[in-house]
């Protein structure tokens, strides 16, 4: 079946299943597709198209429409869009974005979603908002509820980050952007490891694993959890190697006893040992239960890492303070109303977040250098590489947790 014919089937199924809502048959025909919606202002723009605000003429409901450009020269419908449509049809939950309608118009594919006011990244960045322990507990609970539903349906999200966690006018948090999501469960199925923005990428992905499961989503949620507590991205690597260095500087360099399968991963390289920092020093304001949950979510071995459902059942969510009800969570300021960003001292300023400079050792095997695909680092290694078969020395690369916020990475950098 071609992509275009697949889209036609999906479109008819969506209409048959009444994703467009309860519309009277007398008015449904003249208000089909683009005719049904009043286009508003643009909300954002991405690689494949734009998102704009719209009003449903029938229900008067405010919606968000993602317009996806179809491929040139009859290439057909974007495969990412087809996957997103297919998977969102399987996911119906208060903590997952609702796909309302799908329609083609002027060689563009339009996905109609419920309208969400903001996202979690805006909350984290808004210095007018004070996040209490009950507040970030509430955000984490809603995130894990949505993720647990995905994993129960055997779906990996693979692109969890604060700006993909959307917030409604009632404070409800919902998982969005399922363009990279995939079905998992087959033991022989292989995936790309180039998923997630780098700061939220699990160590098994940074080591090139192509066979992974829901643990990669849990690691990303742990990074978001840490970001909520610290009010800044937790581990800000500038490359895959640097990202691993920052992970090891925080949690210590893992050994085979701690992560038995690590040395078998495609892009594994040996790092010099770095002792772990205590979670209390990394998150001094967090409760003991909070630290215990973070530690279980940041477990190196994905087989031992806590699941989303197990995290929801953790005692952290049963102890005081209770999660803030969503409608009581403070909403971020409008972009034009936000004050100029200011530097806020880290809550951990009395305990250094940047440990003494560590070193990382790359083992060279007969001239074959495994460096997680980082071309710039390859050049540095080759300059120091000796003749084939001769002993090699350690290559020094700084490893630290830098509290200074860098440019937020996208999927491809």
Q: How is this structure best described in words?
A:
Residues 319-358, 375-413 are annotated as: Disordered. 28% of the residues lie in helices and 12% in strands. The protein is of the alpha+beta class. The protein folds into two domains: 3-114, Phosphorylase Kinase, domain 1 (2-Layer Sandwich), CATH 3.30.200; 118-333, Orthogonal Bundle (Transferase(Phosphotransferase), domain 1), CATH 1.10.510. The longest helix is centred in the middle third of the chain and has 20 residues, at 133-152. It is globular and about 65 Å long.
Radius of gyration: 23 Å
Compressed to H and E, one letter per element, the order equals HHEEEHEEEHHEEEEHHHHHHH
> Share of helix among residues?
25-40%
Low-confidence stretches: 23-28, 337-399
Name the beta content range: 5-15%
Distance between the termini: 34 Å
How would you characterize the largest beta sheet? Answer: 5 strands, antiparallel
- The helix tally amounts to 12
Q: According to CATH, what is the topology of the largest domain?
A: Transferase(Phosphotransferase), domain 1
User: How are the strands of the largest sheet arranged?
Assistant: 1-2-3-5-4
């Amino acid at each position: 079946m071609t992509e275009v014919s697949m889209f036609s089937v999906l479109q008819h199924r969506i209409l048959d299943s009444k994703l467009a809502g309860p519309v009277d048959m007398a008015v449904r025909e003249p208000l089909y597709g683009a005719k049904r919606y009043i286009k508003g202002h643009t909300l954002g723009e991405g690689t494949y198209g734009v998102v704009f605000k719209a009003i449903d003429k029938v229900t008067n409901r405010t919606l968000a429409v993602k317009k996806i450009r179809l491929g040139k020269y009859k290439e057909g419908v974007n495969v990412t869009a087809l996957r997103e449509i297919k998977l969102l049809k399987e996911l119906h939950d208060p903590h997952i974005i609702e796909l309302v309608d799908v329609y083609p118009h002027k060689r563009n594919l339009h996905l109609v979603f419920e309208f969400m006011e903001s996202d979690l990244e805006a909350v984290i960045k808004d210095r007018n908002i004070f996040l209490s322990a009950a507040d970030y507990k509430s955000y984490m609970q809603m995130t894990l509820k949505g993720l647990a539903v995905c994993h129960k349906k055997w779906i990996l999200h693979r692109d969890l980050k604060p700006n993909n966690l959307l917030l409604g006018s009632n404070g409800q948090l919902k998982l969005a952007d399922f363009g990279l999501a995939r079905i998992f469960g087959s033991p022989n199925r292989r995936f790309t490891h180039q998923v997630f923005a780098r700061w939220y990428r699990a160590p098994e992905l940074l080591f090139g694993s192509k066979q992974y499961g829901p643990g990669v989503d849990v690691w990303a949620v742990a990074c978001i959890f840490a970001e909520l507590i610290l009010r800044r991205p937790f581990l800000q690597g500038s490359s895959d190697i640097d990202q691993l260095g920052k992970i090891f500087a925080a949690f210590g360099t893992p050994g085979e006893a701690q992560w038995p399968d690590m040395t078998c991963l495609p892009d594994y390289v040996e790092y010099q040992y770095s002792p772990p920092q205590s979670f209390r020093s990394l998150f001094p304001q967090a409760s003991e239960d909070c630290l215990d949950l973070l530690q279980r979510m940041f477990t190196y071995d994905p087989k031992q890492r806590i699941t989303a459902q197990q995290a929801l059942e953790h005692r952290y969510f049963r102890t005081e303070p209770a999660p803030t009800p969503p409608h009581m969570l403070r909403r971020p300021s409008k972009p034009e109303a936000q004050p100029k960003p200011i530097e806020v001292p880290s809550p951990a300023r009395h305990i250094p977040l940047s440990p003494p400079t560590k070193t990382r050792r790359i083992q060279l095997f007969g001239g074959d250098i495994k460096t997680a695909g980082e071309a710039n680092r390859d050049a540095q290694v080759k300059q120091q590489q000796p003749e084939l078969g001769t002993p090699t020395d350690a290559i020094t690369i700084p490893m630290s947790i830098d509290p200074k916020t860098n440019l937020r990475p996208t999927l491809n950098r």
